[in-house]
Design goal:
The strands form 5 sheets. The protein has a 5-stranded mixed beta sheet. Strands 13-12-11-14-15 form a 5-stranded mixed beta sheet, with helices on both faces. It has a 3-stranded antiparallel beta sheet with strand order 7-9-8. Helices cover 34% and strands 29% of the residues. The chain is built from 11 helices and 17 strands. The protein folds into 3 domains: 8-96 and 166-187, 2-Layer Sandwich (Nucleotidyltransferase, domain 5); 99-163, Dna Ligase, domain 1, CATH 3.30.1490; 197-339, Nucleotidyltransferase, domain 5 (2-Layer Sandwich). 40% of the residues are buried.
């Protein structure tokens, strides 16, 4: 997908025969994360990373309220990395999931040169903003198990749409911070690039991203996202539940979340405090899996039911969450591996960034892989 991307880097790449290596910049209402991967022979290495707080109120539900102040925070944060100076100024930046739109639309078989106009009509019909007020991109979703002997009567098209005023605001802010926008993309697109091996899943899987401010649900099959949604439950929300119930500060709540979590034998009070929220999460996951199974028959998906769940985000650090969900949903559940497309499956420790902590960096690592 390229129409959401800045074209600046393409112009200079063609002129000077250079290939910019952007760093990932994942921005939320409360903090931003940075990750820069560098090539070393045939592999990639984590060269820079960081997690920096943002003052309250500079972003509200993903919308920038003060571009100048946020630009200064970003600029100072990039310059303060303990891993050293990032040589590149190109940034691959996330857009807030709740402000963007990913839709699958269908088109009858037609010449590809005619698809652009048809997709424009579909966007107008399926997205609640005017096409004149949006940037968009699209890609054809190929069948998961393509049977060349079977004639398909339509195309499945994944459409990504973002409001112009949102993208333009992020672009201006980055430029004020001395950075060059390389690309903009929804958080879900970057996340799946990081955690799905080779960018392909033969059977549908559901990603549950328990982020700082909200949880995203992403169904992925073949080589594309098929469905997204979100809810207010978050990793920080679970910590706040523990804080209120146990009468502890945030630091202690985080320790209890990661060290005790859903282990009832260690401390039943923590289990009792968070189990209502986890029960609600489980029920939402089940609803989304059922919804997808009921509505996927018209697409070229092959298998209609979700086969496994991947949990990512800071909330994935809740001890025992994958075991609880697996037992409750009767489906395999795993903690996502953000290094699967960088360093391979068997890596358990990353220099300077512990494996357990790196799950918080899944989205920004996916942004850094966009090159």
């Amino acid at each position: 997908m390229s129409r959401l991307a800045s074209t600046t880097h393409k112009v200079f790449s063609n002129l000077f025969k250079i290939t910019p290596e952007p760093f990932g910049l994942d921005i939320s209402d409360t903090s931003f994360k940075i990750a820069k991967l560098s090539k070393k022979k045939a592999s990639l290495l984590l060269q820079h990373f960081g997690d920096i707080d943002i003052d309250a109120g500079l972003l509200e539900d993903g919308v920038i309220t003060d571009e100048e102040k946020l630009a200064n925070v970003i600029k100072n944060g990039v310059g303060s990395l303990t891993t050293g100076d990032i040589a590149t100024r190109y940034a691959s930046c996330s857009l807030p999931e709740q402000k963007t739109y990913l839709r699958i639309v269908q088109l009858p078989k037609m010449e590809k040169r005619d698809m652009g106009d048809a997709i424009s009509w579909e966007i107008e019909a399926n997205v609640p903003i005017s096409l004149s007020e949006a940037y968009y991109d699209w890609q054809i979703i190929h069948p998961v198990n393509e049977d060349k002997t079977r004639a398909f009567d339509h195309y499945d098209i994944l459409v990504s749409v973002a409001p112009k005023d949102l993208v333009d605001s992020y672009s201006r802010m980055l430029k004020k911070a001395g950075l060059v926008p390389f690309s903009f993309e929804p958080e879900s697109v970057a996340l799946v690039r990081s955690i799905i091996k080779g960018g392909f899943s033969e059977k549908p899987l559901l990603v549950v991203d328990l982020g700082q401010a909200r949880t995203s649900f992403i169904v992925y099959a073949g080589s594309a996202i098929r469905f997204t949604s979100s809810a207010k439950l978050s990793g920080d929300g679970i910590s706040e539940i523990i804080m209120r119930s146990m009468g502890v500060d945030k630091s202690e709540a985080e320790r209890l979340k990661m060290g005790v979590g859903l282990d009832r034998d260690m401390d039943p009070r923590v289990f009792e405090a968070i189990i209502p929220a986890l029960t609600d999460l489980k029920e939402q996951i089940q609803r989304y899996m059922d919804f997808y199974a009921e509505h996927s028959a018209h697409t070229h998906n092959g298998e209609p039911r979700v086969s496994r769940v991947l949990v990512s985000g800071g909330g994935a650090l809740l001890k025992g969450i994958e075991k609880y969900l697996a037992l409750s949903l009767n489906i395999p559940v795993e903690i996502a591996n953000p290094w699967v497309n960088i360093l391979g499956d068997d890596v358990k420790t990353i220099p300077e960034l512990p494996y357990e902590e790196s799950i918080r960096y899944a989205t920004v690592l996916g942004l850094s892989l966009n090159r």
